[in-house]
Amino acid sequence: MPTLRVTWRKSAIGYRQDQKDTVRRLGLRRLHQTVEHDDTPDVRGMLDKVQHLVHVEVEDRGGPA
């Protein structure tokens, strides 16, 4: 299963509270922090909501074929 590396790039100051809460739910606590999540529809939905605040890299772990 692909993994998403999410890096918080831009401050959430001045944005709605629900966007700030979404950044926290992604596990991001500080600017420039990076976390990894499995590529699921739930995570993709959260990333879509805060796409202007984060940077996402898709990493394929290349499991058994």
Which tags fit this structure?
65 residues, alpha+beta, Ribosomal Protein L30, Chain: A, three-stranded antiparallel sheet, 3 strands, elongated
What does this structure look like?
- It is a single chain.
- The protein is of the alpha+beta class and 65 residues long.
- It has one domain: 2-Layer Sandwich (Ribosomal Protein L30, Chain: A), CATH 3.30.1390.
- 28% of the residues lie in helices and 26% in strands.
- The protein has helices at 17-25, 41-49; strands at residues 3-8, 34-38, 54-59.
- It has a 3-stranded antiparallel β-sheet, with no helix packed on it.
- The chain is elongated and about 45 Å long.
- The mean pLDDT is 95.
- How many DSSP E strands? 3
Helix content: 25-40%
CATH H level: which superfamily? Ribosomal protein L30/L7
User: How many whole angstroms does the radius of gyration measure?
Assistant: 12 Å
The CATH class is identified as: Alpha Beta
Give the CATH architecture.
2-Layer Sandwich
Topology summary:
Blueprint: E1 3-8, H1 17-25, E2 34-38, H2 41-49, E3 54-59
Antiparallel strand pairs: 1-2, 1-3
